[in-house]
Every structure is written in structure tokens, then in C-alpha cells.
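Anyone able to model this chain together with NAP?
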Amino acid sequence: MKKKVFITGVLGQDGANMAEYLINNTDYDIFGMIRRSSNPNFINCKSFLKNSRFKLVYGDLSDSVSIDSLVQEIQPDYFINFGAQSFVGCSWEIPLQTFDTNATGVARCLEAIRKHRPTCRFYSAGSSEEFGDVTYTPQDISHPIRPRSPYGASKAAARHIVKVYRESYNLYAVHGILFNHEGTKRGEEFVTRKITKGVARIKKAIDNNKAFDAIELGNLDSKRDWSDSEDFIDGVWKILNQERPKDYVLSSNETHSIREFIELAFKAAGIQGAWHGKALSEEYSATTEYAIKHDLNSSVLVKINPKFYRPAEVDLLLGNSCPAREELGWSPKTSFENLVNKMVENDLLCS
Ligand code: NAP
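re: yes, here you go
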């Protein structure tokens, strides 16, 4: 009988990439869970939505009845939990909903598996935000858990409950600790996509001789370890298919600042810019040469808006994914520059 894979968060970046990966690389049946919404957005699923091996089902991580019934009915072989309140910035505004979805939601999934399908392999989507206030660099699986946001705390709690269920009930339950990963399906509120969408908007305005507003951002100096989500999906599938369950870190093993991301994104669109000013007055503007050549009315491309600063910032994240590379034979393929180029090219085409 064909294996069945149950994916939560299938409308999001990783869920959609995972469904696409499994359609292309296995003959398994895929069940993608979505929550009830008055206006669901299927844009990330357009390549597989009508595939006969893909089925949409309704459920919600905050609703144990739905999770329990779905596991009982479907009897999945794999349960990949990508559903989450995934935006760190928003987690201070909705901390309880964040915790309920990301931590208690994982306990709901594990309970349903324990009761109805204990042979099912479970993946929990952990995050480098669990490391938070880092004590050493690069961060590996042994780094202390020191989250700096309700989001990071919720993911840390999920990590503990996965371990408890694995050890108490002998479940194949793993928690992958993934550093930032982006791509053409990334949500528009996340800083990388906000930048690439903003660059495409500005480029279109310049090409049409129109005025444009600058992209407004918060802390430009936070450093992140960025990869391509599509590379990580392969790693997640490998984590799920080991002989014995074991948690891993997936990362690019490089760190770059938001400032560097901005520079590469404008370069990818052929816009030449330079930094001026300091602290809150800092701006990234088109160079005088570029502004004259393109007859720009306004040349400010990026400016700081303090409203995008976080109550507690994680300054530097840099992962160590050597164990995953050595033991799983996994490695990321897309470089940082190629990732930025790919996102900008996609947004230029869609704008
Ligand atoms: P995403 O694009 O924001 O997708 C999250 C999905 O979860 C959305 O489809 C959302 O549904 C769904 N969801 C939210 N609340 C839910 C609930 N109560 N019940 C069921 N589904 C719910 O996130 P992503 O980038 O794909 O990330 C996937 C997972 O990896 C998340 O757990 C995230 O926290 C984790 N992670 C991501 C990164 C990263 O850099 N991308 C890094 C580390 C960990 P709607 O479409 O209805 O909103």
C-alpha cells in the first residue's frame, strides 16, 4: 500500500515546498492540512493542487479534536508539522496564540499519534530562535536554549515535548533546528521578502518614470544564517528517514547582515546604491550617477523606521550543520547570493 504523508502548514513556504518535493520524488499520497479561512491563499500550492495524489483536509493546531480525528482517519506514515505562528515579530503581540499553536499544538499532534498511529514518524519544525541570546558561535545542537521572543520560547517548549514523547513512548519523533530559510514562497511580512518585493516595486517605478516610497526596515545589523527553503526540505526528509530518530541543525554555516541582503537585492535589479547617515537617520540611496542617469525625483531606497525594531533582538545567528552534512549526506546547494538573485528575479517577474 502507498505511504501517506500528512503535512500541516501546506499553504506556507515549507509545507508547499515539501508537498512539491514529495510529489516529484516519491509515489506517496499527500494530505495537506489547512485551517478555515474566509479567503485562503493557494498561490504556493498551484503546481500540485490538482495532482491526484494531493488532498486538502481541514484542521487546526489549536483544535485537538481536528488533529485527533485526522490522524485516526488518515493513519499517516509521516506527520510533518510545518504549521505555526511563524513570525517572530508578531509573537510579542499574540504571545498566547503563538504558544498555543507552536508548543501546545505540537503536544496535540504527538498525543494523536501516540493514541492512533504510534508507528507514524513525526517532524517538529524547530528554529534557531531557540538559541536566542547566544553564548557561542557557531551554534550547534548542544547550544543552550536561551530564546529572546515568545516565538523562540514556543519552539523551545516544542523541542522538549518532542523529546519527552520520543523517550516515553518510543515514537519516531524529531525536532529539526533550522536556521533561516527563504525563497520565492516566503511570506511577504518576513524581512527578506519585504526587501525583494520592495526592490521589484522600486525597479518598476524607476522603469516607468514614477515616484516611489523607500522600503522601511528596522535593525539592519542583525546577522542571520540564510539558506534556500528548497535545500532544507531535502534535509528535513533525510532527518525523517534515519534508522533511529535524532535531532539535527540545518544551516548554511555562513552569516550575513540584513544590510548585505539589501545591497545584493538592489544589485540584482541593476540599481546602484550607497549608505549615508548614521543610526536612525541611516539611508540607502541611489548613487548620484544612477539618480541622474534615470532622472530620479527621489533617491532614497531604504530608510529606518523604529517601529520595526523588536523589544529584544537576536543579534547574531550562525549555525553549525556539520553533523547533518556528515551523517545524513545532506548539504545546501544555493549560495547566499544566488538565493537573493532568485528571490529578486521572481519578484521582478511578478510585479
Ligand atoms: P509560513 O510560511 O508562515 O507557514 C506557516 C503555515 O502554518 C501557514 O500556512 C499557516 O496557515 C499555518 N498555520 C498557522 N497557524 C496554524 C494553526 N493554528 N493551525 C494550522 N496551521 C496553522 O512558515 P514557513 O516559513 O513555511 O515555516 C514552516 C515551519 O518552520 C514553521 O513552524 C516555522 O516556525 C518553522 N521555521 C521556519 C523558519 C524559516 O526561516 N522559514 C526557520 C525555522 C523554523 P495560513 O496560511 O492559514 O496562515
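The first strand starts at residue 4 and ends at 8.
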